[in-house]
Amino acid sequence: MDEFEAIARLFRPLSEGAPEAFGLSDDAAALPPRPGFDLVVTKDAVVEGVHFLPGDPPGLVARKLLRVNLSDLAAKGAEPYGYFLAVSWPAHWGDEAKTAFAAGLAQDQAEFGVRLLGGDTTSTPGPFTASVTMMGWVPSGRMLRRSGAKPGQALLVTGTIGDGALGLLAAQGELAALGDERRAALADRYRLPRPRLALREGLLAHASACLDVSDGLIGDVIHMEEASGVAIQIDLERLPLSEAARAFVERCSDPVAALAELATAGDDYELAIAASIPEAMMLAVAAAEADIPLTPIGRIAEGTGTLVLHKGQPVLLTRTGWKH
Amino acid sequence: MDEFEAIARLFRPLSEGAPEAFGLSDDAAALPPRPGFDLVVTKDAVVEGVHFLPGDPPGLVARKLLRVNLSDLAAKGAEPYGYFLAVSWPAHWGDEAKTAFAAGLAQDQAEFGVRLLGGDTTSTPGPFTASVTMMGWVPSGRMLRRSGAKPGQALLVTGTIGDGALGLLAAQGELAALGDERRAALADRYRLPRPRLALREGLLAHASACLDVSDGLIGDVIHMEEASGVAIQIDLERLPLSEAARAFVERCSDPVAALAELATAGDDYELAIAASIPEAMMLAVAAAEADIPLTPIGRIAEGTGTLVLHKGQPVLLTRTGWKH
Q: Three-class SS of residue A45?
């Protein structure tokens, strides 16, 4: 397939139902305004060997690319709308790989209700590289910010923390002691994030601040702390762990250091949320209804800085990173 | 500079004056609707060694990246608004190259009135790769399409054709016979396209169809022909040439084949326009006022197919490509 064939055969069907994309046959798309709503826009790129492993199936690469962007929409309380894709194919991605990549896009388009609106395909002498510009809608002025956390509020996190980083190790053949079943579950978490879009209405109604945990929980909470001009305390013993991550921590000679490692590792694609105590309780109800685990892991206070405690004792940095 | 330093030092200043970008400090931007306008969105990527030469100055790479996207806005009659950037830095792009890249963005932001609204930076083990998602505004439903050409209309083109492809040869050290001055002028055309945004109001008022000539004039006119469901005739002897391109054609053993080569080569970033004869005359006045050359090179007819003539004689394909 040359570039035009790939667009016609693989990508044009992904724009069906979106008249604003003109069947990908024009220089640009024309997006009509949605009165009363802001267009939320985020853009993330992935590079083979940096954000995914060279042998990863193209369909999963496509789905992860959409999901890391959808996770940003989830954190902002936005309803998914559509996306633009730029993809640079290396020579070793043949028609079969390209077709599998497009099939992965189609699968997650259906799951998350987004459509391809435009983009670009090129060749590259380097690794597979792609970027998605993802768009969603929020009621005007209502986008959830990192900067809304206030003293007295609770810090909560969805799902479990650390599985993404452990999943990368598992996908690389590490963590043999955990057994094949746990390693497969962890690798799946690394390869296929679960954007927490089902919590959107609850977040818009009850959250004061929210962000996407992609670079490590503690580092991302520091972003919330700095943007909000507050102090944040994290209780490490309350970190929500999957069964596999708990098994990993229990096997470590220093379990607190292991917890700190998991709290500074990336690829979780969970949400960190600040909400007042009454609103946090309402949010917990919404999360339970959406079948999304939601765990209070700390609190917001006057001041500056992010303090990490384990059973009341400060935990200090190592690595990128933290030391007991 | 690490990723966060690069964002803070190089990119955050490029978002100044755009409150919807939140100083690039959040997961996403929130774009308010502009009542009565559609948001025109286009996305193009560049790869080192594919779209620019490995030794090209980073500032010029940045400006070309913006300009190839702005050229799409120009073709659609859109007013530039802002853009999202994903950039993957190779290890050999140090702080100096990154700073020069950002300075190139700043220079063309000022020239074209756009602001950085968000994006992503990553590392790459491969060549420098970047994509821009460029946004502009058109009055609702007024985006110029490829599909609006009608029988009886004239086909016009801005500027000169073929300089981009000759410029690539010149930048690679070819075309010695043309002399250094012409070669420098051509290489500059390759490295720094001139998006024809100054013709925007004239196009919206008078053009029926328009597209950006980036993949070769004839191939792009075929896109207009197919999208519009018409036949198009191009008179090759009317192809507007720069003095340097004319000197190239005159030195060729088969000047008509040389003209056909220039009409099928890429990187011109001029506009191909269909307009009725009276509207084309009005457009010519607007182009003269904007100091943009505008040349009638053919006509639209009933039927299908793109016919290329030279002084009334059909010119047949070779290469990608055309043969006399």
A: strand
Contact A26 B138 (CB under 8 A): no
Residues of A in contact with B227 (CB under 8 A): 25-26
CB distance A33–B30 less than 8 Å? no
pTM, two decimal places: 0.95
Are residues A222 and A144 in contact, defined by beta-carbon separation less than 8 angstroms? no
Superfamily of domain B3-139: PurM-like, N-terminal domain (3.30.1330.10)
Q: In this prediction, does ipTM exceed 0.85? A: yes
CB-based contact B132:B255 (threshold 8 Å): no
CATH of region A146-314, choose from 3.90.650.10, 3.40.50.1100, 2.30.40.10, 3.30.70.380 = 3.90.650.10
B-chain residues near A78 (CB < 8 A): 28
Q: State how far residue B167 is from chain A, nearest Cα, in angstroms.
A: 21
Domain residues of chain B, as ranges? 3-139, 146-314
Tens digit of pLDDT at every position of chain B (324 positions): 888 888 899 999 999 999 999 999 999 999 999 999 999 999 999 999 999 989 899 999 999 999 999 999 999 999 999 999 999 999 999 999 999 999 999 999 999 999 999 999 999 999 999 999 999 999 999 999 999 999 999 999 999 999 999 999 999 999 999 999 999 999 999 999 999 999 999 999 999 999 999 989 999 999 999 999 999 999 999 999 999 999 999 999 999 999 999 999 889 999 999 999 999 999 999 999 999 999 999 999 999 999 999 999 999 866 543 333
| Å between A50 CA and nearest CA of chain B | 7
Contact B28 A47 (CB under 8 A): no
Q: What's the 3-state SS for B72-116?
A: HHHHCCCEEEEEEEEEEEECCCCHHHHHHHHHHHHHHHHHHCCEE
* Option in B131, B145, B212 nearest A120 (CB): B131
Give the closest of B31, B46, B126 to A127, CB-based. Answer: B126
Distance from CA of A47 to the nearest CA of B (A): 6
The answer to whether the peptide bond before residue B119 is cis (omega within 30 degrees of 0) is no
